[in-house]
UniProtKB/TrEMBL annotation, chain A:
Organism: Thalassospira alkalitolerans
InterPro entries named among the record's database cross-references: DUF2849
Official protein name in the record: Sulfite reductase
Automatic annotation (TrEMBL), chain B:
Boundaries of every Nitrite/Sulfite reductase ferredoxin-like domain copy: 52-110, 347-398
Gene Ontology terms: biological process: sulfate assimilation
Name listed for the protein in its UniProt record: Sulfite reductase
Keywords annotated in UniProt: 4Fe-4S, Iron, Iron-sulfur, Metal-binding, Oxidoreductase
Domain Nitrite/sulphite reductase 4Fe-4S residues, every copy: 119-272, 411-547
Taxonomic placement: Bacteria, Pseudomonadati, Pseudomonadota, Alphaproteobacteria, Rhodospirillales
Automatic annotation (TrEMBL), chain C:
One Pfam assignment: DUF934
Annotated InterPro entries: UCP030820
Naturally occurring in which organism (per UniProt): Thalassospira alkalitolerans
Protein name, entry field: Oxidoreductase
Lineage: superkingdom: Bacteria
Length: 97, 551, 174
């Protein structure tokens, strides 16, 4: 079992975004489309890597996530930081609310 | 201080417009990210974990008050109210939006600043001694030469697509405060036998994943010949540096692989063919630049000031600050005041918009509008009358900028690490905060004396951990952050790469580990010895033992 | 594909023959890689028809020093725009050996590098775009900057020399 979502940075403001079910990009990981397993993950990434998206996002890649309390949480600490903001400035980034 | 003339101004404005157009081409899809990336990097724009990052050049670490004030404004207008001063004497903003960066660059251009060549495989911002033009131990102010290097290296048509980045550092003093031996080219000013002033040329130093202390390629190059000599070195590097492997592309690897003698042969051969060409800079031209950096209008004072002495005697806190943060000036009655950006538990090198504005105002008031950025991530007011030090200190203290810890255990160099950096393997800032808090007692810090801790969040070594007396490298071990300790590094004229002490520590353990090293040192030091001196005398073993026991 | 030289699009009048390809029998103008030139120098310079050499990254322009007056064109191949060796080759050819023929940048030649190429001595650029786009790009690139700090062989006045002139003018005026 490995759940994955696609993340990237938005081209114009650089902020962290996730590929959503309707093919858009959201700042909220909980709205991300989840792929289960390697094959589904690669398909999702392929969808996010088409040239047309080059003017919307930069550098899409897959990250592993887990379901936790009804939300999605990345398994890697680096990616948790990306969903929140710097751990040393909890007043900044998405965690600032 | 150097002021732009219309040529410099025009060049920066043209560059700003050029980048605005490149950003437009990118946003409209005219160029791809792959094509845009090197263009944005050449203008100091990275993409980091949370957002874009803009790195602004502070050429040779010298700022005017109006420039620092503008940096504060930019922090507020385009960022989230702060900036991060780096080991490269630059400032980084962590949250600018790509579509606003051209405006930020235009605002920088208004105060004669830019982000040119703060990234990319080109010649980067030249760094130097933060006390240039003020230090009592200086042979000559290195900044006129740094400015000439800045101009020579800016948009150098031949050297904009080098194998890898290229860093030049210059020291005008025998006491090297610019870490010249760990740069691609280090220039050390000295006298030759004829009594002329020139430069020793050191090449192939560097940190990163394969650290090297640089080697001397030429004992002495005269001032007039410096620029053709630099061009010869760069041409050799551009032609022969490795391009097959990014990790072996730095100049240091070429120097290591073909040897300093061969590098010397190639450089001298090239130089002999170009030395009489148009890069020879004559004395008259150099004199124009020396004039630009002429000392400010110092008053004629006696060196000791009764009021200053009285304040020191009365106020222990002030006296401690003077002891650690104030340094001898070449002009009698003046001193160099260091502004610590390392408050206990703070983020090393970060300054808020209002702090920048305050330091700008204080420099206007007390230091001829001159401010410096240090590679140790602090600020400096280089020309303060001793009689003014007390009022300066009081104002700095109000803004949490007067921590009396320069060179001490809490004056930690620290890269952004995993909190910001896309390349990081571990966080570095929280660690520096925990260490700083552990040693929060300033009396204890003063007792420990000079101890340079340097922390990097990955092997790229932006936090100079290889040359920390105690270096800490953050790594990732199966998803957990852990930290490797090196000992005995030194960035000074006695440059040395630290040695790995042994297995790494978890975040929870590492602060204790540092404390045990310090305790050991205190137990065995001889009179007058700094940590690094004791380490050199006794070697690794006693320290290893306190870290690992029988482990 | 278009070649831009002297503010206009020019025809491709050269056939590039690779390291082992057959040499054309007639009087065609040919360009051969440096390696082949070194190997078959006598044959090549004895041939009728124009001769040019292609430099690839890692080649030594010094190898052509004695033959430059036999060559009408040298192409310098940029395998990737990030490989900047060709800039040094161009300066060495122009400034050290005084090569007067056409110096053409080929390979990964993009708009944003053209000004640097020109400053290093290139006078022709082979772009992957069509004629109009290529010409527009080269024109735009060449006028993007007007201040130059480094003396190269391109004849542009440097900021330092203009400052010097200005100081001299002020001196004579006073
Ligand atoms: C946050 C974004 C940053 C990125 C992506 C980055 C990237 C890198 C990389 C890849 C290297 C290794 C280069 C090599 O060895 O070839 C490096 C080295 C270095 N960087 Fe950074 N860096 C960043 C921030 C900083 C900061 C904040 C500082 C100053 C505090 C800094 C100063 C340096 C220094 C001094 C070196 C090592 C010296 C050398 O070039 O050998 N960098 N950086
Ligand atoms: S050392 Fe590593 S983690 Fe730290 S700033 Fe440099 S690249 Fe980032």
């Amino acid at each position: 079992m490995s759940l994955q979502v696609v993340t990237a940075n938005r081209l114009d403001d650089g902020l962290v975004v996730f590929l959503t079910a309707d093919g858009g990009w959201s700042e909220n990981i909980d709205q991300a489309r989840v792929a289960d397993g390697k094959e589904a993950g690669n398909a999702l990434l392929a969808e996010a890597s088409v040239p047309e998206l080059d003017i919307i996002i930069v550098g899409p890649y897959l990250i592993e996530v887990e379901q936790q309390d009804g939300g999605l949480v990345p398994t890697k600490y680096r990616e948790i930081l990306r969903t929140k903001g710097p751990s040393v400035r909890q007043d900044l980034g998405y965690q600032a609310g | 201080m150097y002021r732009y003339d219309d040529f410099d101004r025009q060049l920066v404005l043209e560059r700003t417009e050029q980048f605005r157009e490149q950003v437009e081409r990118r946003l409209s899809g005219d160029i791809t990210e792959e094509q845009f990336r090197p263009l944005r990097l050449m203008n100091g724009v990275y993409l980091q974990l949370h957002a874009y990052m803009l790195r602004v050049a502070v050429p040779y670490g010298t700022l005017r008050a109006d420039q620092l004030r503008q940096l504060g404004y930019i922090a507020r207008r385009y960022d989230k109210g702060y900036g991060h001063f780096t080991t490269r004497q630059n400032i980084q903003y962590n949250w600018p939006k790509l579509d606003e960066i051209p405006d930020a660059l235009l605002d920088l251009a208004k105060v004669e600043m830019h982000a040119i060549q703060t990234s990319g495989n080109c010649i980067r911002n030249t760094t130097t001694d933060q006390y240039a033009g003020a230090a009592a131990d200086e042979i000559e102010d290195p900044r006129p030469y740094c400015e000439l290097i800045r101009q020579w290296s800016t948009f150098h048509p031949e050297f904009t697509y080098l194998p890898r980045k290229f860093k030049v550092a210059v020291t005008g003093s025998a006491n090297d405060r610019a870490a010249v031996k760990v740069h691609d080219i280090g220039l050390r000013m000295h006298h030759n036998d004829a009594g002329e002033v020139g430069f020793e040329v050191i090449v192939g130093g560097g940190l990163g994943r394969t650290p090297f202390v640089g080697k001397t390629v030429r004992d002495f190059i005269g001032k007039n010949d410096l620029f053709s000599y630099l061009e010869a070195i760069l041409r050799v590097y551009n032609r022969f540096g490795r391009r097959d492997n990014k990790y072996k592309a730095r100049f240091k690897i070429l120097v290591h692989e073909i040897g300093i003698e061969e590098v010397q042969r190639l450089v001298e051969e090239e130089w002999n063919l170009i030395k009489d060409g148009s890069l020879r800079v004559d004395d008259a031209e150099i004199a124009h630049y020396i004039e630009q950096f002429a000392p400010p209008a110092f008053e004629t004072l006696t060196d000791d000031d009764a009021e200053f002495e009285r304040r020191k005697a009365e106020n222990r806190e002030f006296a401690n600050w003077v002891r650690s943060n104030v340094i001898a000036h070449k002009q009698p009655g003046y001193a160099i005041a260091n502004v610590s950006l390392k408050p206990i538990g703070g983020i090393p090198g970060d300054a808020t918009d209002t702090q920048m504005e305050l330091v700008a105002d204080l420099s206007d008031q007390y230091s001829f509008g001159d401010v410096r950025v240090t590679h140790e991530q602090n600020l400096v007011l280089p020309h303060v009358k001793k009689a003014d030090l007390f009022s300066l200190w009081a104002e700095l203290k109000n803004a949490n900028l007067a921590t009396a810890n320069l060179g001490y255990v809490s004056d930690i160099i620290c890269c952004p690490g995993l909190d910001y950096c896309a390349l990081a393997t571990a966080r570095s800032i929280p660690l520096s905060q925990r260490i700083s808090e552990r040693f929060s007692d300033l009396d204890r810090q003063h007792d420990i004396g000079e101890l340079k801790i340097k922390i990097s969040g990955c092997i790229n070594a932006c936090g100079h951990h290889h040359v920390g007396h105690i270096g800490i490298l953050g790594l990732d071990k199966r998803g957990k952050e852990f930290y490797q300790i090196t000992l005995g590094g030194d960035a000074s004229e006695n440059a040395e790469i630290g040695k790995i002490a042994g297995a790494g520590f978890s975040e929870a353990e590492v602060v204790d580990a540092i404390e045990s090293l310090v305790t050991k040192y205190l137990g065995i030091r001889e009179t007058g010895e700094r940590f690094i001196d004791t380490y050199r005398r006794v070697g690794m073993d006693p320290f290893k033992e306190v870290l690992y026991g029988d482990r | 594909m278009a070649i831009v030289k002297n503010d206009s699009v020019i025809d491709q009048e050269w056939i590039t023959v690779d390291i082992e390809g057959d040499l054309p029998a007639g009087e065609e103008n040919i360009i051969v890689p440096l390696a082949r030139f070194k190997e078959e120098r006598e044959t090549l310079i004895g041939r009728n028809g124009g001769l040019g050499v292609q430099l690839n990254s890692g080649d030594a322009p010094e190898d052509l020093a004695d033959d430059l007056d036999r060559l009408s064109i040298i192409t310098v191949n940029f395998p990737a725009y990030t490989d900047g060796r060709g800039y040094s080759y161009a300066r060495v050819l122009r400034e050290r050996f005084g090569f007067k023929g056409e110096l053409r940048a080929i390979g990964d030649v993009l708009r944003d590098q053209i000004l640097y190429m020109h400053r290093c001595g290139f006078d022709a650029y082979e772009l992957k775009n069509d004629d109009d786009v290529s010409l527009t790009k080269v024109r735009a690139a060449l006028k993007e900057m007007t201040v130059y700090y480094q003396p190269t062989g391109d004849g542009r006045a440097t900021a330092a020399s203009l400052r010097e002139q200005r100081r001299a003018a002020i001196k004579t005026a006073s």
